[in-house]
Every structure is written in C-alpha cells, then in structure tokens.
C-alpha cells in the first residue's frame, strides 16, 4: 500500500483538499492529513511544485493541483465511473465544483464586510441558483440518485463537499427547497458510513472554520 501525505492549510479546515480526503475516506484508505498554518506557508511555498497547495505525496513523489489529485485517487480506488464515458462525466462535475469554488473566492477574499455580504448575495443569485436548477435536471435525467452511473463517484463527493460543507453551512438550506434530488444526493452521501466517520472525526479535531 502506498504511503500518502496530503498537504493543505489548517484553516479553512476543508477547502480544496477536502474532496481528496473524502475519496480516501470513502475508499477506506489511510493517509496522513498534513495541515499547516498560514504563517508557515512562506517557508513551505518554495518546496511545492507550483507554489500552490494542496499537494499529494505518494511514496515520496509529489502531485500538485487539487483536481489532478482527486482524479488520480478516484480512478485508483474505483470512484471515477465504470467506463471512459462515466469517467468523463465524473470529471465534468468535478470541474463544475472547481468553477463554483473560484466564483466563491471573490466574496470570500473581500475584506469590507458590507461589500462581502453584497458579493455573497450576488454569488447565490447569479451563480448558485442557476447551477442548482441545472444539476437538478441532470439528476432527473440520470434517474439513479447519483450524478454519474448507478453508484457513488467522486462527483457525488464533490457536490456533497461544496453544497453541504460550504453553501448549506454558510447560507442555510433554503437553496435546496426546489431541488429535492440534489438534497437527496447530499443526504445520501452524508449518511455513507465512511463519510459519516470522517466528518465526525474532522469536526471534532478541526472545529474552527472561516
């Protein structure tokens, strides 16, 4: 079994490394969750391939870019879909979440609280609401309870991580009132034994969140 070390900031406790943590957890694969403070980052940054985190060490080899890491792990541990088409769909949904994270970064980085509130409202109205409508249609089309195929994939974990661990925590669940299929998916992933075990451990060990 390879020795995995996943490196990311300790705050936010989830962030762009969380999908890979969920993949490890769902697959039942041990990994070292290496977290560091922002004050340590200037010393760590020059040691990374592209001055970014997360990075994944695999027996001493280093892989950068959050989605590359997640896709590598998903393929290796059977969470990327059963064939090339499902793998492409899985990638599509992971890229959707990447786009949403980038959009969320704009209000997140705003220091003026009044302006930040305004930007978050715009983000929810202009970005989240139409995306929820779109993904609800895709879930209805797939008609299995999952985004891809007939079983859980990294795509489902990515949507759970973003919508449950970020949007729902920050804004409440009202955005799901007209999206029963997405709500059902989030609840289904949340109830998976390995995911439940991970989130309980994470929330007890890392209780603080930006």
Automatic annotation (TrEMBL):
Signal peptide: none
EC numbers for this chain: 2.5.1.18
Keywords noted in UniProt: Transferase
GO molecular function, a single term: glutathione transferase activity
Swiss-Prot/TrEMBL catalytic activity: RX + glutathione = an S-substituted glutathione + a halide anion + H(+)
Domain GST N-terminal, chain residue ranges per copy: 2-81
Domain GST C-terminal: 83-206
Presence of keyword Cytoplasm: no
InterPro entries on file: Glutathione-S-Trfase_C-like (IPR010987), Glutathione-S-Trfase_C_sf (IPR036282), Glutathione_S-Trfase (IPR040079), Glutathione_S-Trfase_N (IPR004045), GST_alpha (IPR003080), GST_C (IPR004046), GST_superfamily (IPR050213), Thioredoxin-like_sf (IPR036249)
Any Pfam family matching the protein: GST_N
Domain of life (superkingdom): Eukaryota
An example Gene Ontology biological process: glutathione metabolic process
Family designation: Belongs to the GST superfamily. Alpha family. Belongs to the GST superfamily. Sigma family.
UniProt-recorded name of the protein: glutathione transferase
Organism this protein belongs to: Daphnia pulex
Gene assigned in the entry: DpGSTS1
């Amino acid at each position: 079994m390879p020795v995995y070390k996943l490196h990311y900031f300790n705050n936010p406790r989830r962030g762009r490394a969380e999908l890979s943590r969920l993949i490890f957890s769902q697959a039942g694969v041990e990994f070292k969750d290496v977290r560091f403070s922002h004050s340590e980052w200037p010393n760590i940054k020059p040691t990374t391939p592209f001055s970014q985190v997360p990075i994944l060490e695999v027996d001493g080899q280093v892989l950068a870019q959050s989605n590359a890491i997640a896709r590598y792990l998903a393929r290796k541990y059977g969470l990327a879909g059963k064939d090339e088409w499902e793998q492409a769909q899985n990638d599509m949904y992971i890229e959707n979440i990447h786009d949403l994270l980038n959009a969320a970064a704009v209000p997140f980085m705003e220091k003026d609280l009044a302006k930040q509130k305004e930007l978050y409202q715009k983000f929810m109205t202009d970005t989240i609401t139409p995306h929820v409508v779109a993904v609800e249609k895709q879930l209805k089309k797939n008609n299995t309870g999952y985004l891809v195929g007939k079983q859980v994939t990294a795509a489902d974990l990515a949507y759970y991580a973003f919508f449950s661990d970020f949007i729902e925590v920050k804004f409440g669940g009202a955005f799901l009132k007209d999206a029963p299929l997405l709500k059902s998916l989030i609840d289904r992933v949340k109830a998976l034994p390995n995911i439940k075990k991970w989130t309980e451990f994470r929330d007890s060990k890392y209780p603080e969140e930006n």
